[in-house]
Each structure stands twice: as structure tokens, then as C-alpha cells.
């Protein structure tokens, strides 16, 4: 999943970004409100973690501009402003959640995962596709009762496919949601990681779950398809 973090306190911002990256998220980071709005309008983020008191445009203005463009990007406000009227204002503008500083990173991570799932129409973990079970909170994957070990990037790819289960997901969509603007991976990295997942998820099973739609992309689901 690709996350935008807009926070004007550099050490806090970098700590959040590094923590999310360690959990397998792709993260774009900015300390400025005007830049945050440009990022939010230009890329298909799965969640925006947004401070309110930013230099340039405020978090209120950024969220209002996002919603005026009819973008449904989930937005989590992260702020020291804890008055009830501030929370109400944020929710009325279209925020999906509101976390007050100081906070524990584990709570931030849980809230980010929750708004990402809701943004994709998935109410809660685990996600089940055939005999494959993905527990996003515990970061575990099992197929037919056997646990499968995945790297953080492999898990992120599988999670994104699972959130779009049954739908064709293009290579471009995968790239945009799993890699940040500074990523220097080569263009075929998506196909490489699909290969890694197939080796771990499908190799020892007659029924394949990861399918190719030639010229369009990939589908995670039960059924037959081109491979």
C-alpha cells in the first residue's frame, strides 16, 4: 500500500515514515502543506496521514481540496488539536479517522490499516480467498492450513491483490500503490514479485489463485485464467 505522510515535525515525520516502510508500506513524505496537496492530487494513495498545522496549506484546506476533486482517498488526521470541535470539523470535511498526539506507533499502524481496508470495501481482517487466509493485523498468510512466509514486499503485493480480489489489477496500478516516488526498481519488478508469490502461494496446489489476464494484469481469486 502507498501512504502519504504530511507532518511538519521532521523527526516525527521520518519516524512515522520509517515505521510504515518497515511494515511493507511505500511512503511519500513531505513537511509542507502545498507540496502535500500536490502529492495527494497526483498519486493514487491508499491513505494520507495528515497533520493539521502545516506550513503553506493547512490540513483542513488539503482535505477540503481533495474532497472537492471527489477523491475518496482515506485521510487520517494526526494532530495535537484535540478539542471536540476540531474532531467534528475534520470528520465533517470528510476525514476517515483522527489520532491525537502524542500517540503510540502501534495505534497509528492499526488505524492506517483499518482505513485502508475500509477504503477498499473490506471491513476487517482476515481476508479469505478460497483456501488462502491473509491476516493483515498479524501479517500472517496460510493456505490450506499451512503457514507461508513472505517478505514485507511480497506481503504488501498479496494484500493489495486481496483487497481487489476478483478484479483485474494492472501492472501500473500495482506499481503506483506499492512503490513510492523515490523507488528505483526496474520496470519488470512487478512481474518478478508476482513470480515470487506464485512460487509460494500456488506452486504446490492444483487450484491456482494468482491468474494473468494477458495484456491487462493480474487477478487473485478462485477460477481459471491465462497464466
Notable characteristics:
Rossmann fold; 8 helices; elongated; 11 strands; Arc Repressor Mutant, subunit A; 227 residues
Could you provide a short overview of the structure?
This protein has helices at residues 10-22, 33-42, 59-68, 84-93, 105-119, 152-163, 171-178, 189-201; strands at residues 2-6, 26-30, 47-50, 75-79, 97-100, 127-129, 132-135, 140-143, 146-148, 210-213, 217-220.
Please tell me about this protein's structure.
The chain folds into 2 domains: 2-119, Response regulator (Rossmann fold), CATH 3.40.50; 127-220, Arc Repressor Mutant, subunit A. The protein is an alpha/beta fold and 227 residues long. Helix 2 runs parallel beside helix 3 and helix 6 crosses helix 8. The model has no long low-confidence stretch (mean pLDDT 88). 40% of the residues lie in helices and 20% in strands. It has helices spanning 10-22, 33-42, 59-68, 84-93, 105-119, 152-163, 171-178, 189-201, and strands spanning 2-6, 26-30, 47-50, 75-79, 97-100, 127-129, 132-135, 140-143, 146-148, 210-213, 217-220.
Amino acid at each position: 500500500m502507498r501512504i502519504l505522510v504530511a507532518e511538519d515535525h521532521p523527526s516525527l515525520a521520518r519516524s512515522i515514515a520509517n515505521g510504515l516502510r518497515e511494515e511493507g508500506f511505500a511512503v511519500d513524505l513531505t513537511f509542507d502543506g502545498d507540496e502535500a496537496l500536490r502529492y495527494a492530487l497526483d498519486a493514487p494513495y491508499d491513505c494520507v496521514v495528515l497533520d493539521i498545522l502545516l506550513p503553506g496549506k493547512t490540513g483542513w484546506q488539503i482535505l477540503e481540496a481533495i474532497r472537492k476533486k471527489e477523491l475518496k482517498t482515506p485521510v487520517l488526521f494526526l494532530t495535537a488539536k484535540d478539542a471536540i470541535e476540531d474532531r467534528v470539523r475534520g470528520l465533517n470535511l470528510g476525514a476517515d479517522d483522527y489520532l491525537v498526539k502524542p500517540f503510540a506507533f502501534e495505534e497509528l499502524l492499526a488505524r492506517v490499516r483499518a482505513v485502508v481496508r475500509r477504503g477498499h470495501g473490506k471491513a476487517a481482517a482476515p481476508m479469505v480467498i478460497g483456501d488462502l487466509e491473509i491476516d493483515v493485523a498479524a501479517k500472517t498468510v496460510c493456505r490450506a492450513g499451512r503457514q507461508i512466509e513472505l517478505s514485507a514486499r511480497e506481503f504488501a503485493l498479496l494484500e493489495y491483490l486481496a483487497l481487489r480480489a476478483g478484479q483485474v489489477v494492472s501492472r501500473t496500478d500495482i506499481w503506483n500503490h506499492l512503490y513510492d516516488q523515490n523507488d528505483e526498481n526496474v520496470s519488470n519488478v512487478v512481474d518478478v514479485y508476482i513470480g515470487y508469490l506464485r512460487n509460494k502461494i500456488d506452486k504446490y496446489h492444483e487450484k491456482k489463485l494468482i491468474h494473468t489476464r494477458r495484456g491487462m494484469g493480474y487477478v487473485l481469486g478462485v477460477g481459471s485464467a491465462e497464466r
